[in-house]
Amino acid sequence: QHLLTANVNLFPLRRQFADINSFIPQTASTDYGQRGYSLGITDRVLFSSGGILTTLARITQFSSYAHGQGAADMLITPDGRGGNFFNSWSRTSHQQEFLQNYQFPRRRWLGKHTVKVGGDFVHRSYTGPSLSRPVRLLRPDGTLAEQIDFSGSSALAAEDTEVAGFVQDHWMFNDRLAVDAGFRYSGQTIGETAALSPRVGMVYSPGKGGKTIFRAGVGIFNDRVPLLAGDFTRNPTRSVQFFDDQGLPSGLPLVFRNAYVKMDEKGRRIIPPGRDLGSTPYNLTWNLEVNREIIPRVVARFSYLSSRTFDVFVVDPLVPPTGDPILLLTNTGGVRYHEFESTLRFRASEKVDVNFSYVRSLARGDLNTLTSVYVPFEQPVIRPNFYADLASNIPHRVITWARFKAPREITISPLLDVHTGFPYSAVDVLQNYAGAPNSLRFPTFLSVDLQVTKDFRLPFLPWLKKHKFRGAVRVYNLTNHSNPRDVYNSVASTHFGEFVGFQHRLFDAGFDIVY
């Protein structure tokens, strides 16, 4: 009736040449590292009345860093990068969490009710410097076209406290209809001080036997404000100088002052440095789904999902006709995603399970979201913001996967994945979009993957005889289909449009303790 659980997590990581690809050699790549720990206690009490009280307390400390391979200026050419990565940073983050909820004993009123109430407290903070060196953009003949310099303080810090409360009810009318409804009320010191997030879900099975099941849901979900938005104005100031074909400066340098502008019912307002942002990104998602058993052992599923995110923080460099240039952070960004999925599952027996799925989707949004510009590594060139197809947008996808249980506890799991190639953008010498962003695409992706697992025990180790072990061998891209990862996307390159960085057949092995 009373269970107390304590846990300790450690998460060290070091990735050398973390962003290396066909156009970023080791010398121009960046290293990434992290270390930290998390200490947590969960207490769960079951009362004689049937109520359940759950309490969680956790503290987390997280340190991370990224840096280039040297102190040379970063070079960006039509055929790739050179020099050393321009930005180095380190961050020390802390988070304290306290959550508590109580589930009431089940009550009966027009059905069965399971009501839960609770609240949580989360405090987040981070500090750390960010240092940037010059970035030089070169023409095909090697002459300098643009140089980006950085100045100003590099000491960054931000913190946020979130307090929230919620109530929810699982209302089971009968064996065929159930509804989940609730709302969450939250506030953040750095973002929206009061936000209401209602949500409701339903499952219904008409008739007897449960051969047809309908599911539907809709809800609003508030995100946490990125701490990088809280101290955006403290970032080093960018200064851009253009050069003509003779290598001489063309005009005065453009010095982009960092500023945050909030958009709300009162219009556009400049928020002074050090003030709370007063805005929190939120998401509205709804879905419909129907499952139907066509014949015994054959089930079809059709679902539609719509997801829209509002008040996303975006970064946009602006050069007004009058006034100084400005690197603007606003809460005007948005993302929308729509998905239709149809899946057919054929379960011939307990040993054979085959699935076929087709997904039609659309992903569009602002390209210069704060996280895409600064996470995990800051972009050397910040282009003007556009609303367009996202880099993850793949309209058509067909996936077929199966599981076959063979004798001697061997399981064979093949998978076929075919989808539209990912989009990419053409750019010019100055890395500006040459045409509509993400209007070009990689070739169609095709991969056949295979996993074979074998369960076994170790009888010669008595203290492990109660445990089952699982060995696995995996093969990715079994047919060695040419799936490129990179493309020459600069119109100034003689190789423009050529695909490189092909993914070849890959073998992998694993070993797990099942229980």
Keywords:
single chain, 515 residues, mainly beta, 28-stranded mixed sheet, two-stranded antiparallel ribbon, 2% helix
Give a verbal description of the structure.
This protein has 515 residues and is mainly β. The protein has two helices and 32 strands. The protein has helices at 227-230, 370-374; strands at 2-10, 13-15, 30-46, 52-68, 74-77, 80-83, 87-103, 107-108, 112-132, 135-138, 144-151, 155-172, 177-188, 195-204, 212-222, 237-242, 254-264, 267-271, 282-295, 298-318, 326-349, 352-366, 387-389, 396-406, 410-419, 423-424, 440-441, 445-456, 469-476, 483-487, 499-503, 506-513. It has a 28-stranded mixed beta sheet that branches. It has a two-stranded antiparallel ribbon with strand order 26-27. A hairpin with a 3-residue loop joins strand 8 and strand 9 (112-132). The model has no long low-confidence stretch (mean pLDDT 94).
